[in-house]
Amino acid sequence: MIPTAFEYFRPANLSEALALLEQYKDEAKLLAGGHSLIPLMKLRLAQPQYVIDLGGVKELSYIRESGEHLLIGAMTRHVDVETSEMLRQRCPLLAETAHRIGDVQVRNMGTIGGSLAHADPAADYPAAILALGAELRAVSTKGERWIRAEDFFVDMLTTALQPGEILVEVKVPALGPRTGTAYVKVAQKASGFALCGVAVVLAVDPNGVCQDVAVGITGIAPKAYRARAVEEALRGRALDASVIANASAKATEGIDPLEDLHASAEYRAHLARVWCRRAIEQARESV
Ligand SMILES: Cc1cc2nc3c(=O)[nH]c(=O)nc-3n(C[C@H](O)[C@H](O)[C@H](O)COP(=O)(O)OP(=O)(O)OC[C@H]3O[C@@H](n4cnc5c(N)ncnc54)[C@H](O)[C@@H]3O)c2cc1C
């Protein structure tokens, strides 16, 4: 289908983009890689009167070190996250997660900011962003604020971003000592989206006892979530097979798994438990 008519803007910098967004408010949509927005517009599920293309806002595309953190600009494409040597060394979970998104065409166009702002329940980044305890910087003409990953995802396709705000940057911690990470996924055959994706960040002491752990799960519920019950069952324990299996059994505790044409709720819950165990094992082996 062809989208409804719209007026197109291509601002050259962030201030211009913010001014346009402020001017056209709810009638406007930001365009990043277009790999979620354009399909929605073609289906006429989104009918913006004004499209503000961030493609010319070069200042939002970067990966930088900042002490013990890494900063990723919102317009950084999946392929650049996937292939960044700095991320591979200092935050391998994010690079690995980007590598698992869709296919080469999708990764060449899609951006980390677009993916997070879209908040698809089956997107990959949200699991990693939650497990990393990332923070997201939002800017409007009125100022800026940092949003914790856990506060960012509000519901299906809904984030904490307010009208007039642009997501500009993602801040993730560099890999700590004796820390392992993993992102594992069961993909929908056609699109590559996650039926179930589990991200784990795990720190162990020299005896293999879990000092700290964070588990982010996507694909299962209307929004990605931290599996707190799993984390609590691992913290302070030696990570043997039975501890990991018992903890993983809690992967959907307090969650109502989605049911759709791709998978029943029961199957999704099963996937969450099994792939949670595999992700924890893989993270432990990578320490
Ligand atoms: C065939 C196919 C397969 C895919 N497979 C996967 C997959 O396996 N895993 C996965 O995670 N994703 C998958 N995707 C989605 C892909 O990763 C998209 O790139 C991503 O969801 C959206 O990013 P984008 O840069 O294309 O954003 P766009 O489509 O341009 O924008 C998406 C939404 O975010 C808003 N937005 C964009 N940037 C900002 C910003 N900086 N601040 C505030 N709002 C903003 C837009 O207004 C729009 O509402 C797939 C897409 C396709 C078409």
Q: What do these coordinates show?
A:
The radius of gyration is 19 Å and the shape is globular. 34% of the residues lie in helices and 26% in strands. A hairpin with a 2-residue loop joins strand 4 (63-66) and strand 5. 44% of the residues are buried. The protein is an alpha+beta fold and 287 residues long. The chain folds into three domains: 7-56, Uridine Diphospho-n-acetylenolpyruvylglucosamine Reductase, domain 2, CATH 3.30.43.10; 58-173, Uridine Diphospho-n-acetylenolpyruvylglucosamine Reductase, domain 3 (2-Layer Sandwich); 179-285, CO dehydrogenase flavoprotein, C-terminal domain (Enolase-like, domain 1, 2-Layer Sandwich). The structure holds flavin-adenine dinucleotide.
